[in-house]
TrEMBL record:
Organism, as annotated: Dichomitus squalens
Signal peptide limits: 1-47
UniProt entry tagged with the keyword Signal: yes
InterPro entries per UniProt: Nis1
KW Signal (keyword) present: yes
UniProt keyword annotations, A-Z: Signal
Domain of life of the source: Eukaryota
Protein name (Swiss-Prot/TrEMBL): Phosphatidylglycerol/phosphatidylinositol transfer protein
Length: 171
């Protein structure tokens, strides 16, 4: 027993002299666990981001007219399955403050499947939708909103992302 204690003391002195600490088998700290969760969430956010490729910001659209909405998604390394898209329109009001109305989808113009396909000469996969702007939409700034529903990862975690762009409604 004395020899074992002496060996342990000698090992500890050599380890500390070399600038190392003996490794104990412990569960990861809360900080490490939180870090792993953060990295996983960041990876999922980056992995699936769709974009509104068309219309461009501030595109003029006539009330009662049709609008082509192109939703693009880059190819991802994270396994994911697209489920649906919801496209909405929210007038920004008399003051033109679109940030104040961004949380609501006042008029749902489309809801249904999102099945992007490769497009020749285009890096991302894409799906086009033609939506009708209601005839009674007030002229001025309006928020074109998109909600994208999908699931991803080994556990098929359901996810939703939202994005929007401002368009100009004309009479």
């Amino acid at each position: 027993m004395y020899a074992r204690q002496r060996y342990k003391m000698c090992y500890t002195r050599i380890t500390f002299a070399a600038g190392l600490r003996p490794q104990a088998h412990r569960a990861p700290s809360h900080v490490m666990k939180a870090g792993f969760v953060f990295l996983a969430l960041a990876a999922s956010a980056v992995a699936q981001k769709v974009t509104i490729a068309s219309p461009a910001a501030n595109t003029e659209v006539k009330a009662g007219g049709n609008l082509l909405v192109e939703i693009d998604r880059p190819d991802t390394q994270t396994p994911s399955t697209d489920v649906a898209i919801m496209i909405g329109l929210q007038p920004c009001g008399a003051a033109g403050d679109c940030d104040a109305v961004a949380a609501n989808y006042a008029r749902v113009l489309f809801h249904g499947p999102y099945t992007p396909k490769p497009v020749e000469g285009h890096a991302d996969i894409s799906h086009n939708y033609t939506v009708k702007i209601p005839r009674n939409t007030a002229a001025g700034r309006a928020l074109l909103q998109v909600a994208h529903f999908f699931y991803m990862g080994a556990g098929n975690q359901p996810q939703m992302e939202t994005l929007n762009t401002v368009i100009q409604i004309t009479a």
